[in-house]
């Protein structure tokens, strides 16, 4: 039976301790105990200790804005290159956009007046259909592109523009999206009145944003016929919505896939090297050697019609050496463990992008029903956090305030009333729809949630659903039709029931 493992002490027994222990063991013990106590006080955390294991670990104490100012542009350029050319990076970004935005995050007016709510919602729908300043899409398309820019480039800006519409009652407000490159990151200033400019963001003496300094044209334009305006222009902060994820106390964002960029690049390089190796091995099949040429290089030597030597590799090539009497075939090297190594790297990349491995790669061979649901639950919690703590307050709410203010200034909505919005993110697709619907029904019947809450979770407007149901019920009654889906007349078990409160119960009702 093996004895207990010997533990090497952190504080070593030195020569002075050994010498003192011969003369006075008690004093030596007290001295060594004091040295151990001092070592414990100085260390605190193992990760903060200094030694051979952490000799190459360089960590600076710079502020987040200082790090972003130095590396932000390079990170954006490299991440965009990966998304353009690497399928894994492109799929990871698409998965995040699909789940955070989906078909859109829809607002509903939330005032005590139902008539005013309907008026605001109708006006929003008409405006949202043509709010894009470039005229390409609607509000949901603008939101989708903004979230994609935040994930891929780290941040994006929405600028309020005011254009005259075709009709007098059309809202003048339009939304223009600008990439992070538009911000003049080289503009710094520290003024006597306490205001300052850092990376193109102007703040007052209390640190609140009051303006952005931005280039009207994208600095990366290379069209020779475009007259570039490379002088940054000051835009008021109330006319700009800045969307980015805050991971520290910072003023700008970084691409989401930054922790995975090195891993993606390494996998790309490995795949290229492996492909070249396989192609090279497949080109040369065999060489016919002579008795005196067994020790020569395997490179085939071929002479053309002019007697010139030509060295080349071709698929299925058999090279003949002079006086050839024996043939030798090349043997490709084995590639055991390649699949496991590659899958491990993809797991690392998925963790860096914060997406489930199966959703990023489409590989479900290592997942079962329970593990898939558990992984999706954690991913959906992250998505909901981004929706409610980043996208809605930093992008959707500012645009809603611009919309309400402009509608009130044009007399399309009553002035002096605060009109707030309730936002409805898209629903998550159910892995087991029957069980999920039964659970939702039990929650409503037990009073844990309300029917409007369950409808809103699915991305629909409860008022619209109720109005549509009432209209359909009137038409069905007029036509004398009764459907199993009508809870007024048919029970859950499919039995006829009555809505007359004085009638005795029937069926399972």
Automatic annotation (TrEMBL):
InterPro entries: Phage_lambda_portal. It comes from the Bacteria. Pfam families: Phage_portal_2. This is Phage portal protein.
